[in-house]
Amino acid sequence: MAEIINLNRARKARARAEAAATAAANRAKHGRTGAAKAADARDAARRAALLDGARLEDAPPGPDAAPPRR
């Protein structure tokens, strides 16, 4: 005897499977790998360090800061 299935559940399951396949394709097409994100983070840190190293003066001292050494 054939198994009785709920057509509404089958339709929703098929739609979920299609949506998952579409999402996987979009992640592959538009997503960034962990290595790419790490490389961007390293580049941002390098640029920030370069800017900080080229700074002529520190930030103005606050009210409780010690006077600068000379």
Topology, please?
Elements: H1 7-30, H2 34-53
Describe the structure concisely:
With 70 residues, this protein is mostly helical. 63% of the residues lie in helices and 0% in strands.
The assigned structural class equals: mainly alpha
Beta strand count: 0
Share of residues in helices? 55-70%
Content of β-strand: under 5%
Mean pLDDT: 86
Number of helices, where a helix is a run of at least 4 consecutive DSSP H or I residues: 2
What's the Cα radius of gyration?
Answer: 28 Å
Distance between the termini: 95 Å
Order of helices and strands: HH
Unreliable stretches covering 5 or more consecutive residues: none
Largest sheet: none
Shape: rod-shaped
Please provide a written account of the structure.
The chain is 63% helix and 0% strand. It is rod-shaped and about 95 Å long. By secondary structure, it is mainly α. The chain has two helices and no strands. It has a domain at 8-47.
List keywords for this structure.
0% strand; 2 helices
